[in-house]
Amino acid sequence: MKKLFKLFYTDLFLTSRLFALLAGSVVLFLLWFFFPWLGVVPKLFFWGIIVTTFVDLVLLYRIGNAIFAKRHAPERLSNSDDNELGIYIENRYSFTVQAGIIDEIPVQFQRRDVLFKTTLKAGEHKLISYALRPVKRGEYAFGSIRVFVRSPLGLISRRHNFEQAETLPVYPSFLQMRKYELLAISNRLNELGIKKIRRLGQSLEFEQIKNYVPGDDYRNINWKASARQGSLMTNSYTDEKSQQVYCVIDKSRAMKMPFEGLSLLDYAINASLVLSNIALLKEDKAGLITVAEKIGAVLPADKKPTQINKILEILYKEKTRYLEINMEALYSTIRNVLKQRSLVVFFTNYESLPALQRQLPFLKRIARFHLLLVVFFENTELKQVSEQPARDVEGIYIKTIAEKFAYEKKLIMKELAAHGIQAILSTPQNLTINTINKYLELKARQKI
């Protein structure tokens, strides 16, 4: 009995309407003190409030499970994307209610405004949708759903609690991966800024012998097959397949820098996931290597359907380290794991030319055996500072330093090009598009 009473008063809340009426009652009693002719009006008004409150109490508490609510959430959330969630709510009262719904979202979002207000008629049910955008991989713990219900009288509010604690993993941006995958399948990548690259030369990857149709290259006519068939036959060629594409992700302290809530490592991880999926769609083999002060995960290149899930599971757990990258260990791993010429996409970051020069000897050795593509980031904050006009001496110094760092990024590009190393200098938000563009360009030019 004591427990039931405790549940009763902990879930009971007085509304602002009730306080307004009580305040009006106090005013009437004060006026009655100065104007006795008011008679019993203040008392009738006060007892009317009491009776109405009791009726409201009976309306809200006469049914135990009068409200039902449940959260609809996906099995996993996609990092840096808007993830759709929903709350299903059903009114089992015999009258219309005003409902306020609070969903206890994970603490990582640091939001206290996830409150939804709605009106539900008798027997009505609704699905309230909302979106959450995580900016960090890991596990996100959701709490309970709290529904505050008011009857048409609106003097008190009853809270209904629905324990629905669940933990959802936040994976690298698989929603972005699916978007690019659908466009790649339908050959519509150019809609997202993916450039169409003019093919140079012709692939030597034989596909089939087919009937000649006007417009086919007459140089590909297969005269032996034509003689056997009695009609013109031509050789058909396709893009070279089963080429190895390795994404090498630097997770040292250079990748800790934040941009719009995400670290550079998260941008690199999202781009690696999309690039690996595009490579698999192009029937190439995708592999993965992560490195900091020591080698992290090593996944040999493969083109099995399960490969993208293996890459996703590895990238889900990766975190930034606080030490410098061990290039000697990376070079040794690449020489031991990569047994044939491959495209090595190295995601890292350089803020100065000396930072590159420390790693350059190892990069040149890798480029000797493989096609190396170095992807690093443009510092957009410094770029904005360098483009703003200086208003005083201090502003001139700041602008000059910002321009110096921006210029060093260009020097890094020239230094890499001088040693025959492909490079991409990209803003974080355009990293995925620029990386796919470069991959398709290298493939079209048959450099892999």
TrEMBL record:
Pfam families: DUF58. The chain crosses the membrane at residues 12-38, 44-63. Signal peptide: none annotated. Residues 209-350 form the DUF58 domain. It comes from the Bacteria. Keywords: Membrane, Transmembrane, Transmembrane helix. InterPro entries: DUF58. This is DUF58 domain-containing protein.
